[in-house]
Amino acid sequence: MSQHKVVLLLGSNLGEQKKNVELALKKLKDAGNNISQTSEYLMSEPVEFVSSNIFCNIAAIIFTPLSPIQLLDCIKNIEVEMGRINDSKVSGGYTDRIIDIDIIKYNELNFQSERLEIPHKKHLFERDFSRVLLKDFI
């Protein structure tokens, strides 16, 4: 089974944010993904919505046997298991969240569907906190 190199961004701005991110990483590993590298944690203001809750963010490189859509389904399941209710693609806007996991890169794949865009252009080119986290990963 081939392993695909994937760059993820994880963030939380509800509850114990750092513990939420750590639990999400554990759940990713428990789902059969190998976490090979993580960035430092970065605290940041919410982007594209107003909230008094600060985000705890981290970048991670994983190796996975899953296809992009299988990985997205795995990630969405983890988010729901952890208590995430609103998905920004469904609700049409951003809100506070217990966990958010985004696929930034998947090998060198260029992919676009209603559910997924790889590479994740907003994180690569528009968001300052993402550029800080991803500087050593892309």
Automatic annotation (TrEMBL):
Keywords: ATP-binding, Folate biosynthesis, Kinase, Nucleotide-binding, Transferase. It comes from the Bacteria. InterPro entries: Hppk, Hppk_sf. It is an enzyme of class 2 (transferase). Residues 8-135 form the 7,8-dihydro-6-hydroxymethylpterin-pyrophosphokinase domain. SUPFAM superfamilies: 6-hydroxymethyl-7,8-dihydropterin pyrophosphokinase, HPPK. The keyword Nucleotide-binding applies. Signal peptide: none annotated. Pathway: Cofactor biosynthesis; tetrahydrofolate biosynthesis; 2-amino-4-hydroxy-6-hydroxymethyl-7,8-dihydropteridine diphosphate from 7,8-dihydroneopterin triphosphate: step 4/4. One of its GO terms (biological process) is tetrahydrofolate biosynthetic process. Catalyzes the transfer of pyrophosphate from adenosine triphosphate (ATP) to 6-hydroxymethyl-7,8-dihydropterin, an enzymatic step in folate biosynthesis pathway. PANTHER family: 2-AMINO-4-HYDROXY-6-HYDROXYMETHYLDIHYDROPTERIDINE PYROPHOSPHOKINASE. Belongs to the HPPK family. This is 2-amino-4-hydroxy-6-hydroxymethyldihydropteridine pyrophosphokinase. The lineage of its organism: Bacteria, Pseudomonadati, Bacteroidota, Flavobacteriia, Flavobacteriales.
